[in-house]
Amino acid sequence: MKSHAKVVVIGGGVVGCSVLYHLTKFGWTDVVLLERSELTSGSTWHAAGGMHTINGDPNVAKLQKYTVELYKEIEEYSGQDIGLHLTSGLMLAATPQRFDWLKSILAKGRYNGLEATLLTPREAHEMMPLLDPDQFVGALYDPVEGHLDPYGTTHAYARSAKKNGADIYLHTKVEELVQREDGSWRVITNQGEIIAEHVVNAAGLWAREVGRMVGLELPVLAMEHMYLITEDMPEVIDFNKTTGKELMHCVDFDGEIYLRQERQGMLMGTYEKACRPWSPLTTPWDFGHELLAEDIERITPELEVGFRHFPAFNNAGIKKIINGPFTFSPDGNPLVGPVRGLRNYWSACAVMAGFSQGGGVGLALANWMIYGDPGFDVFAMDVSRYGDYATLAYTNAKVRENYARRFSIRYPNEELPAARPLLTTPIYDKLKEAGGVFGAYYGLEQALWFAPQGEVDQFSWRRSNDFDVVGAEAKAVRESVGLMETSGFAKYSVKGPGAEAFLDRLLTCRIPAVGRMTLAPMLKHDGKLIGDFTLAKLGEGDFLLIGSGIAEAYHMRWFESLLPKDGSVELKPLGLSLLGLSIAGPNARRLLQKLTHQDLSTDAFPFMSIRRIDIGMASAIVGRVSYTGDLGYEIWMKPEHQRYIFDLLMEEGAEFGIRLFGLRALNALRLDKSYGSWAREYRPLYGPFEAGLGRFVALSKPADFIGKAAAAKEKSEGGALRLKTFILKARDADVIGDEPIYHDGAVCGWVTSGGYAHASGLSVAVGYVPKEIADETQGWSIELLGELLPANLQAEPLFDADGARMRA
């Protein structure tokens, strides 16, 4: 065995072999894969081997498309037969609600170049005669679906990697990982030791154990998963002989089953409600090419529906039942990327759909390791999307929920209940008593809207029972004053003699004066947006940075990679040690002035000012800014002061008819102003000038901020896209994001977010279109739930276009 390598990949399943292959494909050939047993010995060998390109997240769909397109390449390059069956596939809907969902999936695929078609039940039956058309209301046909041989595919990756120069050592169990002072790793195995610059945890069922070797508790859990294989079926044999084709892959979401042809019979699998974790605390190292005990009674409810939807199964004998463990993350997406705080330790695990996503995961991780960037927007798969709150028990609860709901509809207004509430603030009970309906973001409960007594969310693709209430909340802000909690934002303290120089290099904006704030985009080296913040200078060498709460670990990983080594900068996330409230509306100043002796007039405390102010008996940091686009203030306080300040604002605000509002009303209000948001309008796909943030990019400032050269090039060349706002002629539904935008009947762009701007009384969509047509006033339309609806370009914000109100 080699004593040194640039990279050691731990785990010989399809994901580990894909990572190894892509590293060699891009030029890193001094790479080693270590497998404790034989290749495919974990979950890979007993996988059903299904694959498809369609995914609810368009960015993940791109990686799945790449994965499927890669298979012919590795088969040819390696000389290894992978048993590829591109049969095409159907996604089936047994309810109108599910059919609405399929329409949204079809729309998302349009601008990604994914070919799919909506079918009637009769048309679906003609293509797949085993299904009973009377059980369904519609289907989605995808020509790029099928299945393959897991063993052959994994070995094709492995052979291709070895052909490029990689080494693979079998029966080599990693027993310890120790990082040396120079950042390299001692990879200690039962066959000796390798010194590696990089370590990749692609250990699958043993990913937790390999994480624990470095003090990391990865949010990953294995679940028992069953599928059955039938005896030969005459219906299958007849179809094959009559058409010369193989029966296509099917996903019956309402039946919670999937099926495909297996030889001259059929394979049927299910994601059952009565799911069961496997080995929830530790994974035994001696587990290998073994299956778990059959437990068909546990999946009987799903099979009964499956047999009703596909009647031919009622007469089929069962030849084999496969029950094996697969790993899942809390939301079902992979955990990929560099792990914060561990130099050159990379994650490539929890890839449940390994044969749909394994190639894309390998591509993204190899790009990341070699070029410093994944080459795609992979936030949905980024290991940093979870923080320390994702404990073993949290992971167990959320994975079980995700597994049991894998084929269930997730409505845009649906909040899932498992592992909640976990993180709460001191006013959680007060907001709940006021009717608060909550969502959980980065583990923290945040109020979405305030329901009348006895009401809860009624889940729908269309406007629901919250519509009028959210509208009233939004209008209360515009007409008088509203209050919402803002503790869910991420807050960072940046202090020290080197803080200003550090931030000047990190952010594109000019550093504000003491007592002032500014909007602060952050770019990657290629000039694309990696963050969107508010920067406040509290004093010399003392800054407060406020950004997206869901991206706290993501941004901390970036910050820490750029901190100066001389200790001149102290940067720390404040989390729930600094909590927030916001008041906004034309009476916001009058309310706050009642509670402090400090002058809050525009002359004394103008827009984008920030200072420490006494509110009643409590001290708080108050900034004159509001994401509502109205006159408003953000108030930041210690946790022990939040209840006091909240009660004071509500008591004194009664004079003005103060009303609580939640995140849904905030969304409606920011749409009035065409304000973008992180992870929707602002993400690593777009440059700052494309995103309309050019005025906050100080190309003339002396500091050579990260991405400056690329941003200057974007400005001079104009970029490729423009972020635009559209008014949609919607009826009973509004866009939520990823719908296609058409110009003169052709797909040209995509919606990033939207909704109903209640105060303006209009349905709004925000999205990107090519710069060449971005100012066209005619010919726009947007596809929503299967309908092409006319849309009008909105050249300026619907509310306070000149900003007079928020600056008054």
Ends: how far apart? 72 Å
β-strand number? 38
CATH topology of the largest domain: FAD/NAD(P)-binding domain
The CATH homologous superfamily name of the largest domain equals FAD/NAD(P)-binding domain
The best one-word shape is globular
Q: Please estimate the helix content.
A: 25-40%
Number of domains: 4
Number of helices: 19
In the CATH hierarchy, the architecture of the largest domain is 3-Layer(bba) Sandwich
Tell me the name of the CATH class of the largest domain.
Alpha Beta
Rg on CA atoms, Å: 27 Å
Strand content: 25-35%
Low-confidence stretches: none
- pLDDT averaged residue by residue: 96
> Tell me about the biggest sheet?
9 strands, mixed
Class per helix and strand makeup: alpha+beta
Protein name: Dimethylglycine dehydrogenase
Domain Aminomethyltransferase C-terminal: 723-800
InterPro entries: FAD-dep_OxRdtase, FAD/NAD-bd_sf, FAO_M, GcvT/YgfZ/DmdA, GcvT/YgfZ_C, GcvT_C, GCVT_N, TrmE/GcvT-like
Pfam families: DAO (PF01266), FAO_M (PF16350), GCV_T (PF01571), GCV_T_C (PF08669)
